[in-house]
Write a structure and sequence with these properties.
The protein is an alpha+beta fold and 97 residues long. The chain has two helices and four strands. The protein has a single domain, classed as 3-Layer(aba) Sandwich (Aminopeptidase). 15% of the residues are buried.
Amino acid sequence: MSQDQWTVSVVSTADILDLRMSVLRDGTPSKDPRYPQDDDPDAVHLGIFDADALVATSTWLDRPWPHEESHFAVQLRGMAVAKTHQSRGIGGILLGA
């Protein structure tokens, strides 16, 4: 699939956990791919699918700006691209979404 054929979708926390586990926790003793903020009302989970398989994900959270709490920033958490799909520009598509 070429880069212009990837589509970013909003997905659920449940949709992303297996991919996070296989990419972000591979080789670690951790068995929990969740973050405490995953179910925050402002959490947005994005995903990219290849056919029916989720191949990339990122989680975005609204957070107070540390230097000025009246301003907000966006925090990126749990970005993962399946090993079979790395080095294809898919992560960049998530960052630009």
